[in-house]
Amino acid sequence: MAFEFERKQRIAVLGGGPGGYEAALAGAQLGADVTLVERVGVGGAAVITDVVPSKTLIATADATRAIGEAADLGVQFFGRTETGKPIRPEVAVNLSAVNKRLLGLARQQSEDMRSELVHAGVRIVTGEGRLDGPNALIVATAKDNGTDFDRVEADTMVVAVGASPRLLPAAMPDGERILTWTQLYSLNSVPDHLIVVGSGVTGAEFASAYTYLGAKVTLISSRDRVLPGEDADAATVLEKVFKRNGMKLLSKSRAESVERTDDGVLVTLSDGRTVEGSHCLLAVGSIPNTAGIGLEDAGVQLTPRGQVRVNRVARTSMPNIYAAGDCSDVLPLASVASMQGRTAIFHALGDSVTPIELRNVASNIFTTPEIATVGWNQREIEEGIAQGDIYKLALKSNPRAKMQGIKDGFVKLFARTGSGTVIGGVIVAPRASELILPLALAVEHRLTVDQVARAFSVYPSLSNSITDAARAMHIVL
Q: What is the DSSP letter of 292?
């Protein structure tokens, strides 16, 4: 008697960043036959050249800042000469050692992720991939005698090819003096004067970090303030900190060109002014890596910017093709990419799935101080798009903040008018990325300010400010 066995679902994932990694892992865990195609390493740009190395660099900058500000808490650092006379040593940053460490951590993280996929049963193919219609990938792999081409058949495909730094024709990077954020880790010493072009998240984060690492920093913004898309009060706090630390801010200034000079760079602004520095970082956005990989021929719709159009379960215009991460037209966050990857596979394989609600996504900007947000924002409330009340509590009134010498920052809550349901919030503080979770949970589960206030926060703690703000918004029934 012959037995027929149901064939495993075949899943092909193009790109091994956070979205592709989670898609491949989820597929394998649900019993599918999964092939992951990645050209640079598991983890993609997020792990190898972007999120992991940049946040490691920022951690070093935070350590440097803490040493510099320790004197405010009564801590003094002294060495002694051979005669026993005390001297005060200078704090120096060995950027070559810092970069070696952060690149090592990135490689280790990539290897850990690769091992996890292999253990789960995912087949990993290293090479350049492109779609060959809606049900196959063609993968070019380098061999000693040339290039081999593999064809990967699939019932479901997930495209997670990420994005690359946007380049300006009159400011082409050379990897030495004119740099994108992926090229910063080749520097052997802290720049004497770093000019950062672009005041969005990436520009602000690196400008903040390099200031504390000891560089003179000039930040060029084409808008009237840094972080133009973020909470205005948060941006104001950050600008105040930047200026207090010696950073020069050039607002409403558009960089027309960046040129290499004999010993540095020359940035020319659109109004004719020039800025000279030792190095220039270009942080003017990113471009999705969707060109030339066969998406249109496979029937996948793209936006005018080249992003893949997806719905709330990460599905594209082709029913069996999904997209996750920075190549899609959704928030460019690693956490969102990961959720998209898992959601895509759950949906494709018929598992239970909750469509992604972008309004509930918590995000963080790793400047000093950090800026974390979730839910509706103040502008939307003031314009009547959302109905809500606003309460802002300065962090300097918090006992733990006083103990730690924290002077800048705040907790801001948004609650639905009438019901008191938490609909959003902003936290500007050290480790705001950790403090935002209670507000994210409140938004996700529609808790009221009274329910948040009834939680026991530790005293003293920075999180005390969250419950204090919630208590101040008490709804009288």
A: T
Check: CB of residue 421 under 8 Å from CB of residue 448.
yes
Element containing residue 87 per DSSP (H, E)? strand 86-87
* Cβ contacts of 101 within 8 Å, gap of 6 or more: 56
pLDDT tens, residue by residue, 366-413: 999 999 999 999 999 999 999 999 999 999 999 999 999 999 999 999
User: Which of 65-74, 86-95, 255-264, 354-363 has the lowest average pLDDT?
Assistant: 86-95
Q: What interhelical angle do 51-69 and 201-213 show, nearest 10?
A: 40
Backbone φ and ψ of 58, nearest 5°: -65, -35
Q: Which residues make Cβ contacts (< 8 Å) with residue 108, sequence separation at least 6?
A: none
Closest among 340, 380, 345 to 361, alpha carbons compared: 340
- Of 89, 94, 86, 108, which Cα lies nearest the Cα of 63? 94
Q: What is the 3-state secondary structure (H, E, C) of 245-291?
A: CCCEEECCCCEEEEEECCCCEEEEECCCCEEEECEEEECCCEEECCC
Cα→Cα distances 68→213, 281, 335, 406, 432, Å: 11, 25, 33, 14, 21
Say if pTM beats, i.e. exceeds, 0.90: yes
Backbone angles phi, psi at 363, to 5 degrees: -130, 160
CB 265 within 8 A of CB 278: yes
Pair type for strands 193-197 and 279-282:
parallel
| Cα angle value 22/24/27 (rounded, 5°) | 105
Confidence of residue 1 (pLDDT cuts 50, 70, 90): very low
C-alpha distance from residue 143 to each of 36, 77, 146, 435 (Å): 19, 56, 5, 49
Which residue, chain included where needed, has tokens 């303030």? 225
Inter-residue contact 429 to 395 (CB < 8 Å): yes
3-state secondary structure of 115: helix
In angstroms, rounded to a whole number, what is the distance separating the alpha carbons of residues 254 and 251?
Answer: 8
Please check whether residue 120 is in contact with residue 28, taking contact to mean a CB–CB distance below 8 angstroms.
yes
Taking CA atoms, 19 is separated from 10, 254, 408, in Å, by 18, 34, 35
Q: How confident is the model at residue 83 (pLDDT cuts 50, 70, 90)?
A: confident
Close Cβ partners of 80 (under 8 Å, ≥ 6 residues apart): 86, 87
The answer to whether residues 466 and 429 touch, using CB atoms and an 8 Å cutoff, is no
| Of 8, 219, 218, 213, residue with least CA distance to 102 | 213
Nearest to 62 by CA among 288, 347, 298, 368: 368
Q: Residue 219: how many CB atoms within 10 A of its CB?
A: 27
